[in-house]
Design goal:
Length: 311
């Protein structure tokens, strides 16, 4: 997982206070002071299994290239921990490696920011948080907030894929005797079968449809998020880029015919960031080969910038 720091390039200005991401990112070390840790998850094995359009394996590289030139506005340091790759289609091993990296970052007092990669990454991200939670004196209540056009609640009994991570998490919660608390924002009724809505009801999933997430609905959506946060100690936030309109995020496995506007989702991400409960965050399913003029990569970079900002 040694990071390739040569990827971090961009403009350098002579004036003071003009730092950009590429100038402040450092390799993660064992004694690095607490900050934000970027972890790449190079996999689209789950997308392939889910019969989606592959290409997310190259997402972390594209996100780094889009992040590098962005202005830096944070008091906390940021580190690159390198990439985890899904070798030979071994998704179980990749999940375990991601969980180890996330748990290690949490142990160091960092906020892990995972860059995907297919949304199968969600199970590894959550598992890392769960392993960390198990070391605490009392098990915290972990809530999941997913910005996604899909529930990703397919049954893992058939095949583990980018469509199953939250079913896997529900099963893992049951094994630990933990509540499964899952809120999904941006669900497309057209993209989820009746079976998936039934599974969402069975698992007690809270959700809001894409058509109910306009700017006019933002205050109500914020209240719903606040109510969910009140019942959680820690939050795992995950964003699948297919929640956005295809014109804004074309470089994804399943582009959205409608989607939710950036100006609706970004304030919700800011609320989560500022809640004091955000423990892990990730961004899934950037496929650079399907992108148009780097739009989706730039969106992913902006969202990570928003998650990292402290000033």
């Amino acid at each position: 997982m040694q990071p390739d720091m040569s990827l971090w390039t961009g403009r350098v200005d002579p004036e003071p206070r003009t730092e950009r991401w590429h100038q402040v990112v450092a390799p993660l070390g064992e004694a690095s002071p607490p900050g934000r840790v970027l972890i790449g998850f190079r996999s689209d094995e789950g997308v392939r299994r889910n019969k989606g359009r592959p290409g997310a394996v190259d997402g972390p590289l594209a996100i780094r290239k889009a992040l590098g030139p962005l202005a830096w506005h944070s008091a906390a340091p940021v580190y690159d921990a390198g990439d985890i790759a899904c070798a030979d289609g071994d998704l179980d091993a990749a999940h375990d490696a991601l969980a180890t990296a996330v748990a290690g970052a949490l142990r160091g007092g960092h906020l892990p920011l995972v860059m995907g990669g297919g949304h199968e990454m969600a199970y590894g991200s959550w598992l890392g948080l769960a392993r960390h939670a198990e070391t605490l004196p009392a098990a915290p209540v972990i809530g999941i907030v997913n910005f996604d056009a899909h529930f990703d609640l397919r049954s893992p009994e058939f095949v583990i894929s980018s469509g199953t991570p939250f079913s896997q998490i529900a099963r893992a919660c049951a094994e630990r005797g933990w509540p499964f608390r899952y809120l999904c924002f941006g669900v497309s009724q057209a993209a989820n079968t009746a079976n998936l809505f039934a599974r969402a009801e069975e698992f007690g999933v809270r959700f809001r449809l894409d058509r109910d997430m306009t700017l006019a609905d933002l205050d109500a959506t914020r209240r719903e998020l606040a109510g969910f946060l009140a019942g959680c100690d820690l939050i795992y936030m995950t964003t699948c880029l297919d929640v956005f309109p295809a014109a804004v995020a074309p470089g994804v496995s399943a582009p959205a015919a409608r989607g939710v506007a950036v100006e609706v989702i970004e304030p919700l991400i800011e609320s989560l960031r500022d809640s004091g409960k955000l423990a892990v965050a990730d961004i899934a399913e950037l496929s650079p080969g399907l992108d148009l003029d780097g739009r989706t990569a730039r969106l992913a970079a902006r969202l990570l910038h928003t998650m990292s900002r402290t000033g």
